[in-house]
Amino acid sequence: MDHRLFLAARALVLADLEARRAATPEVVSALEDAVAARQWWAEQWPEGEVYVAGLVAQDVQDAAFDAGVRWPVCDACGDAPEHSLHIQPDLGGPDPMWVCEESGRAVAGLGRLSAPGRAGPAS
Q1: CA-to-CA distance for 56 and 22, rounded, in angstroms?
Q2: How many domains is the chain partitioned into structurally?
Q3: Residue 30: closest CA among 1, 3, 5, 57
Q4: Is the bond leading into 96 cis (omega within 30 degrees of zero)?
């Protein structure tokens, strides 16, 4: 198993956590746990390696939500009530994108979220 795959997945998710100021010790610990769990998962299903980064992002999002943190929050919808972005496609890859749960609009590729209030690239 090529461990660069997991380092890359970790780096992408960490970049998005940092961009949205959500890289708290608890959430980064959840990231480490998600990477470790997905290593085992990918060993069981090697063909699933293309899904690892998106699945790690989903795992961290779920862990953050369980801890009472909504991440990442959509800031592309202006005055709409607070809502989240979600990884598409649902299985997390290949080429996972953060998509607004309300509008369905692609906001950014995984690892490319911008800081709150700043428009980022949609790829």
Answers
A1: 15
A2: 1
A3: 57
A4: no
Q: From CA 22, how far away is CA 63, in angstroms rounded?
A: 12
Two tokens, residue 69: 């943190």
CA distance 69 to 21: 11
Q: Which amino acid is at 52?
A: V
Q: What is the reported pTM?
A: 0.90
Domain encompassing residue 83: 1-123
* Strands 106-109, 85-88: pairing kind: unpaired
d(CA 49, CA 60): 17
In 3D space, the residue among 67, 51, 52, 43 whose CA is nearest the CA of residue 10 turns out to be 52
pLDDT tens, residue by residue, 84-111: 999 999 887 889 999 999 999 999 999 9
Burial class (CB in 10 A: 0-12, 13-18, 19+), 22: buried
